[in-house]
Amino acid sequence: METRRDVFQAIADPTRRKIIGLLARQSMNLNRISDNFEMSRQAVSLHIKILQECNLITIRKYGRERICEAKLENLNEVHQWTEQFGIFWSQKLKALKHVVEYTSTEPPKTSKNRPIDPPKRNK
Predict the structure, then answer these.
(1) pTM of the entire structure?
(2) Domain 7-74 maps to which CATH number in 3.40.50.1580, 1.20.1510.10, 1.10.10.10, 3.90.1300.10?
(3) Residue ranges of region Disordered (predicted)?
């Protein structure tokens, strides 16, 4: 039984993220991609294969060359998943901002909505 790879597996590896970044700027052949890494061309080719299986890049043949191109629209799945956390943190930061602004502009209140008397000092 063959395991289907997904976009999250593809971007989990820093080498593959760097390859996507390189290809986002311009299409490249395998040799040119390999020049950016201190690993064998074969090791880079394995990363390329995973990116292709995850539908994040396409490879087209141009004569004897294999040109890799990014398919960045397929990163939408990652964007949609992470967006929920952006909404979560946005709400938390708004609540924190409200607390900071509220406590810095008004004296603290008791449960009966009266200002709290400052503590008495012992003499």
Answers:
(1) 0.67
(2) 1.10.10.10
(3) 101-123
Residue type, 21: G
CA distance 68 to 80: 25
In single-letter form, the type of residue at position 83 comes to E
pLDDT by 10s per residue, the chain, length 123: 455 678 998 999 999 999 999 999 999 999 999 999 999 999 999 999 999 999 999 999 989 999 999 999 988 888 888 888 878 888 888 888 888 887 766 555 555 555 555 566 665
Nearest to 35 by CA among 47, 26, 44: 44
